[in-house]
Design goal:
Elements: E1 2-8, H1 12-26, E2 31-34, H2 39-45, H3 51-59, E3 62-67, H4 81-88, E4 93-99, E5 123-129, E6 139-142, E7 147-150, H5 156-175, E8 182-187, H6 195-207, E9 214-219, H7 220-229, E10 236-239, H8 241-251, E11 262-266, E12 271-275, H9 292-304, H10 308-324, H11 337-347
Amino acid sequence: MKVCVIPGDGIGPEVIGAAVEVLRAVAPAVELTEAEAGWAAFQRHGAALPTETLAAAKAADAVLFGAVASPSHSVPGYRSPIVALRRELDLYANIRPVVGLQIANCRLQSSEPIHNPQSTICNLVVVRENTEGLYAGRERLEDGGDTAIAERVITRRASARIVRAAFDLARSRAVAGHPNPKVTIVHKANVLRVSDGLFRTVALEIAAQYPDIGSEEMLVDVAAMRLAQTPERFDVVVATNMFGDILSDVACIHGGGLGVASSANLGEGRALFEPVHGAAPDIAGQGIANPLAAIECVAMLLEWRHRAASAAQVRAAAASVLADGPRTPDMGGSSTTADVARAVIDRL
């Protein structure tokens, strides 16, 4: 297996370094190549996604991606490298699993304890279309710069393949033992009658082809409320690009928050795995970033490569560390990134 490692900016190199140690421990024959992308790469080379990096990503079986520190203001010539990679590799499906946590004596930074004995543990997946919608990049200024316009692009092809991916995932979860497989189709077709109207029409056509999988449709604002209140009612949620982005962040609080959330970006025979937390420049270089999201990316990568037993080993080791420590400061501990990685490897 060939994996292209792109650490990126901020805490990316720290957490991806930890994840690579775990990957080598569980799959010692893996072939690793390292490439650069992000804001630092842009400052060095004038390109956030250098040509050499894109070539390395295309030559690999999968990409393990850290984080990028994109500027919040417009910088001539800068384009998000993760968005570019998704498009260049046609990684049309963003997969965000959320498994509820109940861990005694664990307190997230600036939050209540995540242990709630009265709650029902959720186990859901948000499937987000990854190539179009409002993130299609079609923005422009008019009226001398006084009017900004963004075009929302929805196509039958992209809608069909993301909804099919959601139903295939629900079916595979049912085979694995998840009860009551169901896909929730999220849209706002009552207002966005043309764009979301097309997405809804195509989604319902695809749903009819899966009689063994339950389905429902839900307006995005209702879905956000119910994901916050009763996440256990959901199995697989499918949505357009921006809606899926927002809903997955809402849902992830039930799994411990953004700091421990992971994602897969999947295409036809290609994949990229990345933690969701971003570059976190405020703690970069301190060695205290939580590597568990990046380590879960290793498990997702192994699972994607049909190495289910190895993926299960990584998850069991990470779950043991999450339950018993050591823990980084974001989860109420005082341990380092290296401490957590070493503890996972010791359990492996």
